[in-house]
Design brief:
This is Penicillin-binding C-terminal domain-containing protein. The protein is mainly beta. It has a two-stranded antiparallel ribbon.
Length: about 70
């Protein structure tokens, strides 16, 4: 798994990239640029991802007094 550093390119010879980043809540943008065997680059394809905060845990109910 790759860890994507902020504002730095990551290259991979594989057509897929598995990412292992823990992103804070908010909007994050990723840009993909493909370089072919002749060194030509594609236009960037940009994807925006929104990470929502985790909901607060629900407290477990406690049983009432037993008769």
């Amino acid at each position: 798994m790759a860890l994507l550093p902020l504002q730095q390119p990551v290259s991979s010879p594989e057509p897929r990239l598995v990412v292992h980043n823990l992103l804070p809540p908010g909007r994050h943008r990723f840009s993909l640029v493909v370089v072919d065997e002749h060194g030509r680059t594609s236009a960037p394809d940009v994807c925006e991802v929104t990470v929502r905060p985790r909901p607060a845990p629900t407290p477990a109910s406690t049983p009432g007094p037993q008769p």
